[in-house]
Each structure stands twice: as C-alpha cells, then as structure tokens.
Automatic annotation (TrEMBL):
UniProt source species: Belliella marina
Coiled coil: none
Protein name: Molybdopterin molybdenumtransferase
Function in brief: Catalyzes the insertion of molybdate into adenylated molybdopterin with the concomitant release of AMP.
Enzyme class, broadest EC rank: transferase
Matches recorded under SMART domains: MoCF_biosynth
Involved pathway(s): Cofactor biosynthesis; molybdopterin biosynthesis
Metal-binding is among the record's keywords: yes
Organism lineage string: Bacteria, Pseudomonadati, Bacteroidota, Cytophagia, Cytophagales
C-alpha cells in the first residue's frame, strides 16, 4: 500500500505525448495554449478618446473656444486640429493630430459653435487612450500552457487573431463492471442496483470538457473483462474502469490487466475511501481502475484522475493542491488511513458532513467538495487548515 503523496508523484511523472491542433478562438475556451503568442499589432493602434467630449491642444486651452469639426468612432481620415480650436469627439474616435487632451462633455457648456470650459478642471492628456497602451507590436501576450478563458479569447480577438494552436484533449472511455448494476431504463430486480457510476463518471468528464468516447458495461467474467479492456483501450488515451478491482472472486479487473501485460504503477493507497485504486500503463495508454462504491469512485476521480486529465490537456502542477481551508469543528479520526471526507464549504470554513460511508450518496449530494485529513492527524482541531477538493 502506498501513500497518497506517492501516488500523486507517480501520476505526475507519467510522460505525456501531447498532440497539437489548430482551433478557432471561439472553440478554444478551456483548452491550453500550445504556443506563446506575440501581438501582431499595437493595441490601441491609434490614440483615441476614452469619452464623449471635445479634443484640444492643452497648451491652447481658453475659457471659451470654437468648435472646428467632428470626429466619430470609425472615421479613418481625420483632419489635423486647427490651431486654438476644439473638435467634437466621441468615445473610440481617433484623436486628431495636434490634439492631446479630451474634455468630457459634462464639463462644458455649448452655445452655437462655441464651448465654455473651466480650464482648472482639465489636465493635460485627460481621456486619451494612447496607442500601444494595451500592448505593443511583438509583445508577449499569452504564454504557452495558459488555460484559455473567455478573457483570453477577448484579448486574442482584439489582436485580430482568429485561430490558435492548442493541446488536444485526451480521448477517455469508461468501462463499468458489476453484474448487479442495471441502467435506469431497466426494472430493478431483487439484488440489483441502479448504475450510479456510469452517469457520475460521464458527467465528471464532461465537467472537465472531455467528450466521452464510450461508457460500456461488461459482464463479471474473466474473459469478457479481459476482451473488453483489450478492445476498448485501443479507442482512447485514458481508460477508466469502475468496480471489480478489489479482492473478491468476481473482481477480474486487475488479473485481466496483468494478463494483458499492463505495467502496474500502483494498486492500493493508504486512504479511505478508495483504498483499492489501481493505475497502470497498457501499451501507451493510461488505465485507472476505480473502486466500485460510488463515493470511493468519485473521490478517486477527483483526487487522482481529474488532475491527470488536466495534465494531459496541458495544465501544470495539477497535483499540488493550493486550496486549503480551516475546519469549522474539531474532528477525531480513528483511522490509520488518509481520509477524504465529504464536506460543505460555508463562509470559508469546512463542515464535515455526516454519512461518510462510501455507498452514501445523500451526503455526496450535499457536499461542495472533499477535505483531506492526513493519517497523521488523528485529532484535528477547529481552525486546522486542510486541502480542499471542490466539486
Ligand atoms: N475482503 C475485502 N473486501 C473488500 C475490500 C478489502 O480490502 N478486502 N475493500 C473494500 C473497499 S474499500 C472497496 S472500495 C470495495 C471496492 O470493490 P470493487 O472495486 O471490487 O467494487 P465492486 O465490488 O464491484 O463494488 C463495490 C460496491 O459498489 C457497488 N457498485 C459497483 N458498481 C456500481 C455502479 N456502477 N453504480 C453503483 N454502485 C456500484 C457494488 O454494488 C458494491 O456494493 O471493495 C471492498 N471490499
Ligand atoms: O475504501 Mo472503500 O473505497 O471505502 O469502500
């Protein structure tokens, strides 16, 4: 049995051969940039007005000035400012050559073609957005490895960039074991249960922006499990199995992976829930076998699988959790294992929920995330800071 941190280190060390593709910026949100982007233009590319008002040459300012023209946003041919006059200007319009200051219209009075200003209220350079104030030509604007947000898309669009190179997301598929498990469209017979893990893992993957290749059910027979893994692993980069990974007579997943020649990275972690978690490499593909209990499965997914998928997508340091919050109440553990407890984060404090059994999904519904209590902390005081894994 290995420790939580060792398992994370092993998964962090797996070499990933990321592929790159070009996508339109509107399709790129949530992906990771596979190139460093330098601005092809200065933005703004011309000095322009930040307000609706009047443009003037500051040194010429007088209490009464004559309006000699109008410039609006979109005007491409703008006359230079005539000496000692003022020009009507609108937000986003180019500042005429010779002007250096904008007076917002709330500060002036207009009569015919003349305006009255209090020069004491105006400073040189007011409301002029200078060319290059956002970025200069050739300036680095997005680093390789950046997760693209709506804000990144806005920035790229402002530079006239329509397509970028991103890391391809992994193809992921899910295989469910458990002859007792039936779909919600079937009538529940005695001894059967509804499939929680299929929809749960499917949505957990969708939440990460992964299009799931398949969610397949396999019979609890050694040959069927082996055949399914052998065929389905070909279709994906990461294969996730649910159930059948413990030590029962019908737990065929680990022997099947051994028969297929998978390289086992680890099996069994000193944690609760999710002790019998398995990770291995089959050919060039990564295989996770999650314990069948739904909350063990989801806990393992959040702590180990999700960061691996994000690494595959191009994120860095995904196993370093920097989200820590204080416990709202003291907590005593009688376990020698690291605990991942369902909890609610309220007003910056972690409230550990009742109903921590690994089959209990009522507490999972209420939980906002998991809190990690290391095995060393048998008596945790109120206020102790612990890693928090949000849902
Ligand atoms: N003798 C031992 N028995 C068990 C140990 C052990 O160390 N020694 N470990 C226990 C722990 S901890 C866990 S967790 C489970 C993991 O077992 P498996 O991964 O083999 O999972 P199954 O036996 O197939 O299922 C466990 C449990 O979960 C239910 N299940 C399975 N699939 C689904 C699904 N898709 N939706 C909803 N529920 C599902 C299944 O009916 C079982 O109740 O092993 C313990 N045993
Ligand atoms: O450790 Mo298992 O994951 O609770 O039931």
């Amino acid at each position: 049995m290995i420790k939580v941190e060792e398992a994370k280190e092993i998964l962090s060390a797996i070499k990933i051969d990321r592929k790159i593709k070009t996508v339109s910026i509107t399709e790129s949100v949530g992906m990771f940039c596979a190139e460093t982007i330098y601005s092809p233009i200065a933005v703004p590319s011309f000095d322009n007005s930040a307000m609706d008002g009047y443009a003037l040459f500051f040194d010429d300012i007088k209490p009464v000035m004559e309006i000699s023209g109008v410039v609006k946003a979109g005007d491409t041919l703008v006359e230079p400012l005539k000496s000692e006059t003022i020009v009507r200007i609108f937000t986003g319009a180019p500042i005429p050559v010779g002007a250096d200051t904008v007076v917002k219209q709330e500060l002036v009075k207009i009569q015919d073609r003349q305006i009255t200003i209090d020069p004491g209220l105006v400073k040189k350079g007011d409301f002029v957005r200078k060319s290059g104030a956002q970025c200069e030509i050739g300036q680095e604007v997005v680093k390789i490895g950046t997760k693209i947000t709506t804000g990144t898309v806005a920035l790229l669009a402002s530079l006239g960039i329509a397509e970028i190179a991103v890391f391809k997301k992994p193809k992921v598929g899910v295989v469910l074991t458990g002859d007792e498990v039936v779909g919600s469209n079937e009538k529940l017979l005695p001894g059967q249960i509804y499939d929680a893990n299929g929809p749960m893992l499917h949505t957990a993957l969708l939440e990460l922006g992964i299009e799931v290749e398949f969610v397949e059910k396999v019979k609890d027979e050694a040959k069927s499990v082996e055949e399914s893994i052998k065929n389905l692993v070909e279709k994906v980069d990461i294969l996730i199995l649910s159930g059948g990974i413990s030590v029962g007579d019908f737990d065929f997943v680990r022997p099947a992976l051994q028969n297929l020649g998978a390289k086992e990275l680890f099996y069994r972690i000193a944690q609760k829930p999710g002790k019998p978690l398995y990770a291995g490499i089959l050919g060039s593909k990564v295989v996770f076998a999650l314990p069948g209990n739904p909350s063990s499965s989801l806990s393992c997914f959040k702590v180990y699988v999700s960061p691996f998928i994000m690494r595959f997508c191009g994120a860095e340091n995904t196993y370093q959790s920097d989200l820590k919050f204080p416990l709202a109440q003291a907590y005593n553990s009688d376990s020698s294992l690291t605990l991942f407890l369902k909890c609610e984060l309220k007003e910056g404090e972690i409230h550990i929920l009742s109903g921590q059994e690994s089959f209990n999904l009522i507490s999972f519904n209420r939980a906002t995330g998991l809190v990690e209590i290391p095995n060393s902390d048998t008596q945790s005081s109120k206020g102790n800071l612990y890693n928090y894994y949000p849902f």
